[in-house]
Write a structure and sequence with these properties.
Length: about 575
């Protein structure tokens, strides 16, 4: 419980900081709220005046005129009060939306600067839930906090202060009910927090499952596992349903019913006060003041009820805020200085050790790659091929050792500067749901002729015929694997990178397309440093150096002819592949 309070207080303090950034609109909203409260106080006073000063005697023609005038004033007050409440809510809503937009922007910016290791451990669905669902809940919280709770609190306090000055004893007697209101408030909030926290967890789980199922629907259907996956989904869905039912019952019984009883007791207290005064004549009571006291008391407890119920919704949003600020508190990639680096220089791996978790994947690896040369890495799955590329791209940092380009440690280089002259083509080429043009240019200002030239160079004539402004469906589902890969190669070629990285870029395509792409690779790697992770050894026969990896260490190195003459591991792999093909 203590930890929960610490986390909650920390979130509340951060929410205050965000709220203060929009204080202009909040201030205007509060001004309208105070003016509305003044009118809500004034209205019952007019009715009380009519009852006490006009209805107690024989009503004359002039009295009717006075009543009509006062009732018109009351109507104007009633209408103005509604308008002021509306304007107050509008400005509070503007503040809430601005705050939520600011938080959402900060969350997205934070996520985009997380180290890759963060995404290794958290499903994409859960991250998306925090960026969208949780920030929307936060917006709802600010809307409730300002639009409903602030207005209700200001009105309740204003009415009670007025009641205190008009009927002091009655106002003091109502304080007897404060402990009961506090118990209801505290109990309701604590239980709501427990339920909403569980709902939040299950909702994140279900978002992650939906994301996973949609992306793997082909596998699910191939193995006829629709029912199995449905049952897993339904288990989580039922848990959310059950908790929501409990939450609804809590709101019904703890909120409305309990406060109905308190309000009933408050009216009895007011009636007792006026009844005793009327019988004993110890203090003066009037019908008008009775009306005003009952009106104020009813409104006070109606607004207290609104505050309690809305605070329950805020507990839900606070658990979202905890999620958001937990994410914002995570360490981002360290912002590095603008040190210059020249990717035309030699690259050297010095005594590299690296582990994703406990056991080292790379062990004491040392390697020098001369500028403008091509180097290929081969080895069994888990030998460390892709890990070397991830280290070079500075997605991860070595546990021990350094990677230097031109004698400069890349760990001290701004990542944007490091990667701006690099291009990567992966085994599974990812395409955005956009045009072919946008997937190649990626927001950079390349002309149509430059894009067409890039496609021609890598052998993408068929794609040019399709039209570079034609739409690509999600993840390139309307393209063949070869076409997707050709677009990825064009994306790399058009940037004229100094360092090219090909991560098993031809392993998922047919032999005919591989030959087209291989010609493109030969053009791409000309006069630039090229790192290749190879699956088909026939594609790397002409690279300058081949590194054979085994359990994170260099087993053999040399060009194709040198390795074939050694009769070692590489030769066995090559001959086996030739035999299989």
């Amino acid at each position: 419980m203590k930890l929960k309070n610490i986390v909650k207080n920390k979130s509340i303090n951060k929410l205050k900081d965000y709220a203060l950034l929009e204080k202009k609109y909040l201030f205007i909203g509060f001004i309208f709220s105070f003016l509305r409260t003044f009118l809500e106080i004034l209205g019952p006073m007019i009715i009380a005046y009519i009852i006490n000063n006009i209805f107690i005697s024989n009503i004359t023609k002039n009295d009717f005129k006075t009543i009509a005038l006062l009732l018109n004033i009351y109507l104007i007050i009633f209408v103005l009060s509604g308008i002021l409440l509306n304007r107050s809510k509008v400005y509070f809503q503007i503040s809430a939306n601005k705050i939520a937009a600011r938080v959402q922007k900060d969350v997205y910016d934070k996520v985009s600067n997380f180290p890759i290791s963060y995404f290794d451990n958290l499903p994409a669905g859960k991250i998306a839930s925090r960026v969208t669902n949780d920030t929307n809940k936060l917006k709802t919280m600010f809307q409730l906090l300002f639009s409903d709770i602030a207005n209700a609190f200001i009105l309740a306090v204003g009415l009670y202060i007025t009641l205190f000055f008009t009927d002091t004893i009655a106002a003091l007697m109502l304080l007897i009910l404060v402990p009961f209101v506090y118990i209801i408030f505290k109990t309701y909030l604590n239980k709501t927090y427990v339920y909403t926290k569980k709902i939040k967890k299950y909702t994140a789980d279900i978002n992650a499952k939906i994301n996973e199922y949609i992306h793997n629907m082909e596998i699910i259907q191939v193995f006829n596992k629709e029912k199995y996956m449905y049952d897993k989904f339904e288990n989580v869905n039922k848990s959310i349903f059950d908790i929501n039912i409990k939450l609804s019952k809590l709101r019904s019984y703890s909120g409305y019913r309990a406060m109905d009883v308190i309000q009933y007791l408050a009216i009895i207290i007011v009636m007792l006060y006026f009844g005793i005064g009327s019988i004993t004549n110890i203090y003066t009571v009037t019908i008008g003041s009775l009306y005003m006291a009952i009106d104020y008391t009813t409104k006070i407890f109606n607004n207290i009820n609104t505050i309690i119920m809305r605070f329950g919704d805020i507990e839900d949003a606070l658990s979202s805020a905890n999620h958001i600020f937990e994410l914002l508190d995570r360490k981002s990639l360290k912002k590095l200085g603008k040190h210059k680096i020249d990717l035309n220089k030699d690259i050297e791996f010095k005594n590299i050790y690296f582990a994703y978790k406990e056991n080292d994947i790379i062990k004491n690896l040392s390697l020098k790659v001369k500028s403008g040369t091509s180097i290929a890495f081969i080895g069994q799955t888990g030998s460390g091929k892709s890990t070397i590329i991830n280290l070079l791209l500075n997605f991860y940092s070595p546990r021990k050792g350094t990677i230097e380009i031109g004698g400069v440690n890349i760990s001290s280089i701004n990542r944007d500067d490091l990667r701006k002259d690099m291009a990567v083509v992966l085994q599974d080429s990812f395409l955005f749901k956009d045009t072919i043009r946008e997937n190649i240019s990626m927001g950079d200002d390349f002309s149509t002729s430059e894009i067409i030239k890039a496609l021609k160079t890598v052998g993408g004539e068929k794609i040019i015929k399709r039209g570079i402004d034609s739409e690509i469906l999600e993840n390139g589902s309307n393209l063949s694997q070869g076409e997707k890969q050709l677009i990825s190669f064009a994306r790399a070629y058009i940037r004229d990178p100094k360092l090219l990285i090909l991560d098993e870029a031809t392993s998922n395509i047919d032999t005919e397309t591989e030959q087209i792409i291989q010609n493109g690779i030969n053009k791409l790697k000309k006069d630039r440093t090229t790192f290749i992770i190879a699956h088909r050894l026939s594609t790397i026969k002409d690279v300058d150096k081949i590194i054979v990896l085994y359990n994170g260490q260099i087993l053999e190195e040399g060009n194709h002819n040198e390795l074939m003459r050694r009769n070692g591991y590489y030769k066995k792999m090559y001959l086996q592949q030739m035999k299989d093909e």
